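Thought: the user wants the 3D structure for the chain below. I'll pass the sequence to the structure tool as-is, report back what it returns, then summarize two notable features.
Action: structure_tool
Action Input:
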Amino acid sequence: MNFKSCSIAIVGVLCLAGIEAQAALVAQWTMDDSGANATVLEAVAANNGTFQDATGDPNAVAHAATGKIGGALEFDGVDDYVSTGFAGVNGTAARSVSLWIKGTSVGQDANPYLIAWGENDSWTPGAAWRMRLNNNGGGNWGARIETNSSGFNGAVNVLDDQWNNIVVTWDGASTAIIYVNGVIDTTDGALNVNTGPGASAAGDVWIGSAERFDTSGVGDQDSRRFKGFIDDVRIYDTALTQAEVDVLAQVVAGVDGDFDGDLDVDGADFLEWQRDLGDATSLAEWRSGYGTASAVATFAAVPEPASLLLAGIMALIAISKRL
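Observation:
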């Protein structure tokens, strides 16, 4: 970009606002919670989830799983799922969902849900938004997106006992894309999307299962539960670009001094060192890594309005000195 051809106001405000708009993260469950509790923290707007387990399986076990990025949640495929108070992205609005999964076909329920929201409503066209797995046969389990009246399947096997990143994007008009590990798996140009939240908080986001409501608020707990690990669930209110999907799918190499697993090195890691480590080697790692972060940690951060304004002011100052 030729900064001198732009007015300072355009560069400092509109361009920065455009960067924020490109990656509008509206919900993220990192699955990094620990301890014998049912809370699954949501990082953007505190739409915390609840880990549900009808048999009383110790939640500490589920929370203790090692994930792709920090921790993960382990689902038993029988009665485990996460319910949330977040309604998701509804109507025909553009959206993207990203998550990491690890599992096999052994003991897997038929076509289990990974994340879902919206209403059943006697299969009103487009009224639900569900990402699930589809048994394609021959040991191949692909990702699937469905919206009551329409849906399509991916061809890439994502149940190979390895961590796989699945991203589904919808452009708000006609086209949906399924990506696996950053590569386009399949595309559909005729998906019917008009997701409705139903009544009485009906159809809120569930992870690992689905609760299908109709417009009167009547619903049922769908039995198609996922067995395996889920990590770093993200929802955006825009269709991510290929470049943004690439960032999400990158193989994460650890950051020295990142003791809490959130992929940046800051004061929280020092507190982890004080509480759990205390050795000189780890302290040296923290000192050398302080202030660094991976692309995944910094991607799609949604700045507070005040932070965005401050960034704009700093950009104006920096650019004015260059001109």
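Final Answer: Structure generated. The first strand starts at residue 25 and ends at 29. Residues 10-18+253-302+312-322 form one domain.
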